[in-house]
Design goal:
alpha+beta; Chorismate synthase, AroC fold; four-stranded antiparallel beta sheet; 11 helices; 32% helix
């Protein structure tokens, strides 16, 4: 089974991830992982932390001579900001007078619930782990998963559909998303330039007023075989796993596979994707893709389209009303350096989470202790599908 875990705090010495279950023989390019980490840091609306960090990964186990060896893989990304926190967040006892308390919990954040749950007098340690800085390692793991999936012709990209009230009023094509991914300068990750300018105005207004803004990102996966996931049990459904993966991201409050909201408001005759057959290619296809590439908990061979709904970041320069944990009196919520808009970065993180789920589904279906064995199993299944 493909599994991963992350460790580390926002202002700790480093971030760590371990992943297990990948077969041997997968070519791993460190530059490709670092490129994904760079993409996560881009986008108009990012905060001061991105000026401090230049995320670079070290692969310390599980890869030798550029290929996986079937052993657990360990990844490390150092925090450049650690030098500013060594005295206030030491591993050993240290001087508690230097501890930087967070005694005024932020509405919408993990601060209050976490402090109560873990019995801390303030929310500093909750903030440190709940921070989206943790997603650095999800992106690193996702980059490895992408390199595994590429051996089977599977590609994953994302784009931004909405920032605040400004929304792209059409579906983005795969070709547009590919072209967007090749841009070196990242504004807000929208395929339509005019809409992106309107989105930027929303972010500018949030900057001006000390506010934050959320939005919608869409992850698209192309080249999936038919039959990943299963209808047989509730926890083997591919869409269920994807939904959990996307909603597990910090600040994501909703997920949509295909055109779920539009479908819920329409008649069945307008929602279901008609089925057709191409004799010359010997394959089934759909007349549309409103299902987003998943039917009955299984991939159906069409593009996978998953959308994440991201609420505005909880830390505002114009803080909301809160309560001081020490005095129990009304107070303004704490402010720590924060972003204004992270929707483009969320799309990159969403790509990583989708890649992780799909890598797990591929390994579940095709297995293999080596890439050679996995590809042989995959090719045999592909021929079975072609002959169906």
């Amino acid at each position: 089974m493909f599994r991963f875990e992350t460790a580390g705090e926002s202002h700790g010495e480093c971030l760590v991830a371990t992943l297990t279950g990948l077969p041997s023989g997968i070519p791993i390019a460190i530059d490709a992982i670092n490129h994904e980490l760079w993409r996560r840091q881009q986008g108009f609306g990012r905060g001061g932390r991105m000026k401090i960090e230049t995320d670079k990964v070290s692969v310390v186990s599980g890869v030798r001579h550029g290929k996986t060896i079937g052993a657990p893989i360990a990844l490390i990304v150092p925090n450049a900001d650690w030098k500013n926190w060594t005295e206030s967040l030491p591993v050993e006892g240290g001087d508690m007078a230097l501890h930087k308390k967070v005694s005024r919990p932020r509405p919408g954040h993990a601060d209050l619930a976490g402090a109560i749950k873990y019995d801390f007098p303030d929310a500093r340690y909750i903030l440190e782990r709940a921070s989206a800085r943790e997603t650095t390692m999800r992106v690193a793991v996702g980059a490895v998963a992408k390199q595994y999936l590429a051996n089977f012709g599977i590609e994953i990209l994302s784009h931004v559909m909405a920032v605040g009230s400004k929304r792209l009023d059409r579906n983005a094509s795969w070709e547009e998303i590919v072209a967007l991914s090749k841009k070196r300068e990242v504004l807000l990750g929208c395929v339509d330039e005019a809409t992106e300018i309107e989105m930027k105005a929303v972010v500018d207004e949030a900057y001006r007023t000390g506010d934050t803004v959320g939005g919608i990102f869409e992850v698209v996966a192309r080249g999936l075989p038919i039959g990943l996931g299963s209808h047989a049990t509730w926890d083997s459904r591919l869409d269920g796993k994807l939904a959990q993966a996307i909603v597990s991201m910090q600040a994501v409050k909703g997920v949509e596979v295909g055109f779920a909201e539009d479908g819920a408001l329409s008649f069945g005759s307008k929602v279901q994707d008609t089925i057709h057959y191409k004799n010359d290619e010997r394959r089934f296809f759909r007349g549309a893709n409103r299902a987003g590439g998943v039917e009955g908990g299984m991939s159906n061979g069409e593009e996978l389209r998953v959308r994440g709904f991201l609420k505005p970041i909880s830390t505002l320069r114009r803080p909301l009303e809160s309560v001081d944990l020490e005095t129990r009196e009304t107070a303004k919520a704490a402010y720590e350096r924060s972003d204004v808009c992270v929707v483009p970065a969320a799309g990159v993180i969403g790509e990583a989470m989708v890649a992780i789920v799909l890598a797990g589904a591929m390994l579940e279906k095709f297995g293999g202790d080596s890439l050679t064995e996995a590809k042989r199993n995959f090719e045999g299944y592909t021929e079975q599908v072609r002959r169906f």
